[in-house]
Input
Amino acid sequence: MMHAITAALVTTLASPVTEFDAWYTLSLSGTQAGWQHTTDRIEGERRIRTSTEEMRIGRANVEVTVTSKTTWTEDLKGRPISMEWSQLMAGSPVKTTWTFHPEEIQITVVQGDRTSTSLQPAPTIPWLTPSGAEELIAIRASAGANEISWHTMLPDMGTQPVRQTMTRLSDEELKVRGRVMKVSKWGVQIEGLPVAMKTWLSTDWRPVMTTMQAPFGELRAMMCSQEEALAGSQSDAPELFMSLFIKPVGQQSLSASATNAVMRVSTKDGSPLLLPTVGAQSVTQSTDGSLELVVQLEGRQPLESDVPEACTASSAMIAAEDEVVQDLVRKATADLPADASQAQRAEAARAFVNGWIHRKGLATAFASASETARSRKGDCSEHAVLLAAMLRSMKIPARVASGLVWVDGADAFGWHMWTQAVIDGAWIDFDATLPARYSVGHILVATSNLEDGDGQRELLSLLGLLGNLNIEIVRVDQ
Output
């Protein structure tokens, strides 16, 4: 998810049509956390734009470095040829390639020695590559436009184009690399990204600075020299994990043995809050705008629609067809009777994943099921995707769920990921990080099928809630 933020910073930075090579520092709440390097060049009959970012974040006492590289290739008429996106957070890097054809987009994902390929229909609405968007901005802004809108693609948000709008706010002066420059300040909105952004452009529409007011602090990209960008790699990484814990209102706490919990949830800034009624969670809207959540350990919400095919298919993140994943399924269910129910098989897989991942920690960040099956290490996201892959391998529809979980010892809620599976006509929650199937100390925010070509679009709704929630534990039943 952090790359979704830095990718948005890259895309919003406008530039002239000419070739360029620029470096930026990436800072979080005033602490330099990484760098960004963007180039745009012409090679023969192709235009190639490359953005490389490195971002360091602290997760409790562990530092995680997220490195990503995005390369857009198009012809000189602005028609897209391909997009390559590689990302390394821990373990084997993941490389995604979109190859554009008139009627479809071929998606190829490579991680280690595994390659998966799928097809998505080409967008039906006009959209622009980053370079095409930059040309539009330069033309419209030079003509005096105060608002500019277009559709573009962001790798984290999949192959469905998103609308991006820039609104001129003011003309200012800004000190950049030791000299004062005249700049124009613009507000930026990206469809599906619930955070406020601003960008400052030079008089020739080159990127100078961009800020994003994320709930966990201001993320800033600032033009600098290469030496200045790389110099920050020696500083301490800003802490994100512990800083996002939510202490509930009141004195109530949640025990692992609880069978029912009632909680009241609202946003600190008063913005509308929508949470799903699914699995163990049911949600009721209150007149004051808050939500009342009832989480029942044996809660069952009947399916209201057909299960998407993506919940049963294999994908790069949830590789149900991986031979190692299938071998783990055989091991997990070896002692079950031949007539074991889906619920019994799902619980056997959940308990197996809990023991199989024996190096539990925060150093790994969102590795795929294939990698986790082999490395046997990870945090909640690795538990969630591996269990989802094993369930799909057993022909049980599954997806990942994201939200909050009660953390014993901290007496607070921390951000978390687990798995949901369709059992007997209902979504059932399974948390492979726990000794038991589930607990009522979960608050579900979003679900995702993690299908190829969709990025993490469904999980980006969490961004607007980080650091922006009040939680009251109203009642707990043992």
User: Anything to note?
Assistant: The two ends are 36 Å apart (CA to CA).
